[in-house]
Specification:
The chain is an alpha/beta fold. It has 7 helices and 5 strands, in the order H-E-H-E-H-H-E-H-E-H-E-H. The protein has a single domain, classed as Rossmann fold (3-Layer(aba) Sandwich). A 5-stranded parallel sheet has the order 2-1-3-4-5, with helices on both faces.
Length: 187
């Protein structure tokens, strides 16, 4: 059950930046699905800007690589899509480890769409542990789901995290109003 109306319509609105990393071109469809689902859950008052990058592009040397790392570090949501867990992806984990933490008081989200249920085993365990560590290092909450389980738009696993991210973002971006105090002077 989608809960977009339960918190999306109550939200004041704003902008959310989603930055997706995928390991192969077969993952593009899943990146598009999760970005669209995230936007739907956030509600119409939130503008979701989504970037999708293949891991090879992120590893580029020079100005392009630095620019992409800065964009990823500033994103509200990092989405990592690893379609096959047959082999470890240390280059992905090293790249994620190079990102600085989010701005203090602001918590981000790291979402993993990982392999499929047939990939259970050591590599899933290693990948999940690595992503949990990277999430901690960058002040992000980590959630994950099997990559193949998005057919039928079943997004309950994502709804609570979207709601929490929006609530946190509103707290950080709302201005702090301090009531003026009247100062009386004796005449």
């Amino acid at each position: 059950m989608l809960r977009a109306n339960s918190f999306g319509s109550a939200a004041q609105g704003g902008k959310l930046h989603l930055f997706s990393i995928y390991t192969d071109f077969g993952s593009c469809r899943r990146v598009k699905w999760i970005a669209g689902t995230f936007a739907k859950l956030a509600g119409h008052r939130w503008h979701c800007r989504s970037e999708m990058w293949k891991l090879d592009s992120l590893m580029a040397n020079g100005a392009m690589g630095k620019m992409l790392a800065a964009d990823a570090a500033a994103a509200d949501v990092l989405i990592v899509v690893v379609s096959s867990l047959e082999q470890r992806r240390p280059e992905l984990m090293d790249w994620l480890a190079s990102l600085p933490p989010t701005i203090p008081l602001r918590q981000g989200l790291l979402i993993g769409l990982l392999g499929d249920e047939e990939d259970k085993g050591e590599e899933l365990d290693w990948t999940a542990k690595q992503l949990i560590q990277r999430a901690r290092e960058t002040n992000r909450k980590f959630i994950w789901h099997w990559m193949g389980h998005h057919d039928g738009d079943a997004s309950d696993w994502l709804a609570e995290s979207v709601e929490a991210l929006i609530a946190n973002k509103q707290i950080v971006t709302e201005p702090i109003i301090v009531p003026e105090t009247a100062v009386w002077q004796a005449a």
